[in-house]
Design brief:
It contains two helices and 13 strands; from the N terminus they run H-E-E-E-E-E-E-E-E-E-E-H-E-E-E. The chain has 161 residues and is of the alpha+beta class. The radius of gyration is 24 Å and the shape is elongated.
C-alpha cells in the first residue's frame, strides 16, 4: 500500500512538472499557417488584415508546444487589380503575429508576393494588328485560395509556459 502511495505521488509530481514546464522556441522556427478565406488583390488594399490558422502542431522534444488551429494575423502590404492591355494584378502581404491560447502573442516574420507577369507586349502587338480591340484585354488578378499554406518564422527566440 505504501509503495502504491509513493508511486502515485511520484507520478503526480512528474505530471505537474511537465505541465508547468517552460519551452523555448528558437528564432527562425517554421510555423505553417493556412488562409481562412480567399484573398484577391482586386478587393484588398494595403493595410487590410488577413486571418490565418496554424496547420500543424509544433513539437519540441516530445512535447506539443503550439497546437494546430491557433490564429495568426497578417497585413496586406501591396494590392493592385488587373488592368487593360493585359496588365496583371499584384498582391503582397506579411504574416505578423501568432496568438496563443493563454493570450500571449508571438511575433512572426515572412513576406509573400504574387506579382503576375503581364502580357502587355502580346497585347500591344495584337493591338497593332487588330486595332484598338486589344486595349480591352484584361490581365489576371493576383489571388490565393482559402486553405493555401504559407511558412512564417518565429521572429525572435521566445519562451512560453
Amino acid at each position: 500500500m505504501k509503495k502504491l502511495f509513493l508511486a502515485i505521488v511520484f507520478l503526480a509530481i512528474g505530471v505537474n512538472a511537465q505541465t508547468e514546464s517552460s519551452f523555448t522556441i528558437p528564432e527562425g522556427t517554421i510555423i505553417k499557417v493556412a488562409l481562412d478565406k480567399e484573398i484577391n488583390g482586386k478587393y484588398l488594399n494595403a493595410g487590410d488584415k488577413i486571418d490565418f490558422t496554424t496547420t500543424e502542431d509544433l513539437i519540441i522534444g516530445n512535447y506539443v508546444v503550439l497546437k494546430k488551429g491557433l490564429k495568426a494575423i497578417g497585413t496586406v502590404t501591396e494590392a493592385a487589380k488587373s488592368k487593360g492591355l493585359g496588365k496583371k494584378g499584384k498582391l503582397s502581404f506579411k504574416i505578423e503575429f501568432l496568438y496563443l491560447e493563454n493570450g500571449k502573442v508571438i511575433k512572426l516574420r515572412n513576406e509573400v508576393t504574387k506579382n503576375l507577369n503581364g502580357s502587355g507586349g502580346v497585347v500591344a502587338a495584337t493591338s497593332v494588328v487588330l486595332t484598338p480591340l486589344a486595349l480591352f484585354i484584361k490581365g489576371k488578378n493576383a489571388k490565393y485560395e482559402k486553405g493555401a499554406v504559407f511558412e512564417a518564422f518565429i521572429d525572435e527566440t521566445t519562451t512560453i509556459n
